[in-house]
Specification:
Structural class: alpha+beta
Shape: rod-shaped
Strand order of the largest sheet: 2-11-14-13-12-15
Number of helices: 3
Radius of gyration: 48 Å
Helix content: 25-40%
Distance between the termini: 62 Å
Order of helices and strands: HEEEEEEHHEEEEEEEEEEEEEEEE
Largest sheet: 6 strands, antiparallel, barrel
Amino acid sequence: MQLHRFISSQWRLLLLPLLGLAAAFLLRQTLLAPVPVHRTGLAPRHLTAEIYGNGTLEARVLVPVSARLTARILAVHADQGDEVRAGQLLAELDASGIAEQVRLAEAQTRAAGAIVRAEMAGLGKARANLGLAERNVQRYRDLASAGLVAAATAEQFETAWQVALEEMARGEAALAAAREQEQAAAAALAAARVQLADTRILAPLDGMIISRGQEAGAMAAPGLAIFRIVDPASVWVRAHVDEALLAGVRAGQPATIILRSAPGQRFAGQVTRVERESDRQTEELAVDVVFAEPRTDTRIGEQAEVYIETSRVLEAPSLPVAALARRGEALGVWVARQDRLAFREVTTGIEDRTGFVEIVSGLAAGETVALAAAGQRGALQEGTRVRVLP
């Protein structure tokens, strides 16, 4: 028993130093191990300051095309997605009843014209009779004054002259009435022809049909859109931008447009208008951005993002944004010197959406800046030992 106790105590004396060495080794490899960081530093880059906004595709020129009269649709000759030209036939309405009205109005117009011509002939005859009566009455007045004819005879010609005057007046009134009837018939014919023309639904402008609301056999009516047409050149993104970012936004600035249907593509654009009234609830303002090249595959209402370029710096000394750190209110970077970190306060400029930021002052070219993994940035402190990786 005593021998067993002696051996156990000897083992404890040997194990304790070994355990201490192992603990020290583990501590050095874990808590006291240098933090691995990647090396970065100032490098010249082209940086662009951009302001973000999201919104939808809209159009300044969006025209609903509907019938001007109530009639059944006989045929539809266009569909959504079609590009159309102004005056192109899009649809036809039932014109049978209106065509009959046109024929009736044409007959009435011809009849009214015949009446006018008859009244004009009658008026010509009355004018000739009046001329003859005027000459006769003057001659017999002279003869009666000279005592060559009886006064009663002269009075007869006076009476004939008065009758001719009345016939002339009646002829003029009848001709005026006939002409009014002819004008009314012509107006009715024009109205009927307009209605007949309205049975042909034509494109009011060059553009693209974005929706088709009715089919053949349906009843068209004023105000009920059969098609909706947009001018592709008028399509823009109505983006909503935070009021706090609007100081640098103005018309004419270049922009990049990203459509939800084409997330991998970038479309060039330009700010064309900045609204003057903000949304009081969202505290955002609408900014309209047009495409540099008009699009034909437009989907009005589609979600879109815009990046408005407010300034640009060429060959700017810059760092990855991930290299920036804060100590209290100070913004800076961790500079690695002889495997130890030192905090360096810096002044920044443009921050690019590609992940780089301009360093205006506080850092010299050639200095090593520590770039730690996201999970290890909290471990960086003044004097922290680091292992700088490429």
